[in-house]
Design a protein that fits this description.
The complex is a heterodimer of chains A (115) and B (113). Chain A is mainly beta and 115 residues long. Chain A is built from no helices and 11 strands. The radius of gyration of chain A is 13 Å and the shape is globular. Chain B is an all-beta fold and 113 residues long. Chain B is 0% helix and 51% strand. Chain B contains no helices and 12 strands. In chain B, the strands form 3 sheets. In chain B, strands 2, 5, 6, 10, 11 and 12 form a 6-stranded mixed β-sheet that branches. In chain B, a hairpin with a 5-residue loop joins strand 7 and strand 8. The N and C termini of chain B lie far apart (40 Å). Classes of the chains: A mainly beta (115), B mainly beta (113). Chains A and B meet through strand 4 and strand 5 of A and strand 5, strand 6, strand 10 and strand 11 of B.
């Protein structure tokens, strides 16, 4: 497809389990972003990648959260020992280049529910 | 750090009335500004963006926004609301020379028939 693809679209997990969320950016896009959208909280920045490196990890909520990107393409956001407060929609976006007025294109998100 | 403030988490307008969604940014140097829209159960899509080429920016679906440096604002307007405009609207900012994109908390627009 031509857009940003995220999988799974929905994930229900038990508290304490680990989860992996996947993002396939638009082909050729060098920048990739992860955001978390909680009810009434807007979009919370988590991390962004320039190629395979992540210059800014300051948005990751805790050390239970990690992310990687390989081959300048697919990215995985991993949440270890999930907690109920991790329940949210996790959005991925990509853009062709970095900075300026470059538009970020968003995927449909992964809705994570921790029970 | 760059930030944007969206005043009013919920805005209701009658069909055909003016839509005004407010966004103020915090920066001493004019940043790049964006408005995104999220329809129910869909991802975010770009409505319009400020690139410093013009202070009045026209976007899709009849929306426009005006950059006002003196007020550090980038409010979104539409002359006549349509039922299909009901959605959540996000203002976003990227500082000059930076890569990251920060979003406001969003404004949910309800259109009353």
């Amino acid at each position: 497809g031509a857009g940003v693809s995220q999988s799974p679209s929905n994930k229900v997990t038990e508290k304490g389990k680990d989860v992996e969320l996947r993002c396939d950016p638009i082909s050729g896009h060098t920048a990739l972003y992860w955001y978390r959208q909680s009810l009434g909280q807007g979009l919370e920045f988590l991390i962004y990648f320039q190629g395979n490196s992540a210059p800014d990890k300051s948005g990751l909520p805790s050390d239970r959260f990690s992310a990687e990107r390989t081959g300048g393409s697919v990215s995985t956001l991993t949440i270890q020992r999930t907690q109920q407060e991790d329940s949210a929609v996790y959005l991925c976006a990509s853009s062709l280049v970095f900075g300026g007025h470059t538009e970020a294109f968003f995927g449909q998100g992964t809705r994570l529910t921790v029970v | 750090a760059q930030s944007v403030t969206q005043l009013g988490s919920h805005v209701s307008v009658s069909e055909g009335a003016l839509v005004l969604l407010r966004c103020n940014y915090s920066s001493s140097v004019p940043p790049y500004l964006f408005w995104y829209v999220q329809y129910p159960n869909q991802g975010l899509q770009l409505l319009l963006k400020y690139t410093s080429a013009a202070t009045l920016v026209k976007g899709i679906n009849g929306f426009e926004a005006e950059f006002k440096k003196s007020e550090t604002s980038f409010h979104l307007t539409k002359p006549s609301a349509h039922m299909s405009d009901a959605a959540e609207y996000f203002c976003a900012v990227r500082a000059t020379g930076a890569n990251n994109l920060f979003f406001g908390t969003g404004t949910r627009l309800t259109v009353i028939p």
